[in-house]
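User: Reviewer 2 asked us to show a designed sequence for the structure in our supplementary figure. I'm pasting the structure tokens here. Could you produce the per-position amino acids so we can include them in the response letter?
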């Protein structure tokens, strides 16, 4: 690259920056159904009123995508023909590289990223970035499932963790005022209204969480081991689970089979505005994630216990992968005032200015 080309690119990011495309994608919180998506099970998340926004303009002078972020000190500078997204520096640029490798834009771009999705909290800040950037760089937006799969492949290439499709699909398919009942086998999405008398509050445990450093991949492998013995867990009965020889694999499978049943029951309870039942199911989900799936921590358990003891709280559980991060609580409006973030269900990603 010539010094001139770089100078021009940086100028473009300054006064000459006139974005041609603006894309925005929300984070998500999962109300119930964790560690079920990668075995084709059921999940019930909602897209939340926290967004990542990506504004870009083409820069034909250079074959790189350069992004500045309001939360990351270093620029992401990714060649449009990037080969190994996981090796890119700084770490946040790996998600950019993952998307660039999937979309393969025909020209370079410069752009700016702003975000109100907290990172390391289990609220899918990475999925929000992936989805917004994919749309900004021109990925097809006609089929939500295809776009979610593209972003999921980008995430796998970026961090090398075999994560499921829940986060990306929720960020894309979110519906205002609704949670989403997603069947991760058929990839069908059913909107379930969140009743106005329910408030969803997300509280951070104070313990940061990263998927890459966690035992997430080990849990995925343990579920695969269970399926090798009894077939797809989404179709397995409690009796099938009891036949699994290894006690650890049996416990992992028991969580998945029980969690799928809880998601169904929760969707029915929410639709009927039966918040007491919904809250009990969230409590049971946490116990199962703690005891059988072993993805909770002392900090998460203490927080869940404290929130549950607060008047007006129907239920509370860790949300997302676990190993730190956030707890989600269902409560009467105002019951957890001052405790974290009240989040509201919103529509999925949007893009303006694409040709
Ligand atoms: C992470 C993954 C999701 C899902 C959850 C656990 O958020 O990205 O695909 O597996 O953990 O439910």
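Assistant: Here is a per-position design you can include in the supplement:
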């Amino acid at each position: 690259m010539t010094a001139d080309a770089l100078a021009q690119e940086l100028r473009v990011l300054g006064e000459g920056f006139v974005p041609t495309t603006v894309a925005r994608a929300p984070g998500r919180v999962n109300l119930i159904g964790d560690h079920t998506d990668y075995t084709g099970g059921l999940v019930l998340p909602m897209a939340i009123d926290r967004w990542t926004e990506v504004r870009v303009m083409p820069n034909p002078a250079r074959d790189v995508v350069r992004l500045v972020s309001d939360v990351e000190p270093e620029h992401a500078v990714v060649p449009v023909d990037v080969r190994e997204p996981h090796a890119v520096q700084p770490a946040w640029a790996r998600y950019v590289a993952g998307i660039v490798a999937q979309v393969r834009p025909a020209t370079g771009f410069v752009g700016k990223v702003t975000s109100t999705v907290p990172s390391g909290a289990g609220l899918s800040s990475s999925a929000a970035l992936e989805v917004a950037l994919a749309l900004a760089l021109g990925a097809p937006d006609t089929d939500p499932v295809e776009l979610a799969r593209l972003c999921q492949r980008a995430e796998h290439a970026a961090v090398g963790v075999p994560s499921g499709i829940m986060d990306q699909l929720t960020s894309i398919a979110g519906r205002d005022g609704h949670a989403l009942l997603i069947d991760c086998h058929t990839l069908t999405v059913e909107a379930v209204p969140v009743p106005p008398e329910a408030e969803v509050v997300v509280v951070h445990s104070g313990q940061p969480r990263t998927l890459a450093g966690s035992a997430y991949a080990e849990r995925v492998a343990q579920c695969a081991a269970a399926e090798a013995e009894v077939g797809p867990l989404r179709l397995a009965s409690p009796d099938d689970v009891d036949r699994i020889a290894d006690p650890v694999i049996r416990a992992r499978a028991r969580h998945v089979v029980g969690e799928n049943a809880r998601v169904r029951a929760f969707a029915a309870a929410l639709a009927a505005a039966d918040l007491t039942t919904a809250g009990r199911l969230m409590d049971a989900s946490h116990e199962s994630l703690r005891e059988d799936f072993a993805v909770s921590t002392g900090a998460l358990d203490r927080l869940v216990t404290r929130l549950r003891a607060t008047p007006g709280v129907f239920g509370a559980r860790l949300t997302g992968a676990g190993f730190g991060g956030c707890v989600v609580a269902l409560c009467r409006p105002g019951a957890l005032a001052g405790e974290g973030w009240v989040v509201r269900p919103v529509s999925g990603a949007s893009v303006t200015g694409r040709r």
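For the response letter, you might also mention the following. The chain has a mean pLDDT of 95. DSSP finds ten helices and twelve strands in the chain.
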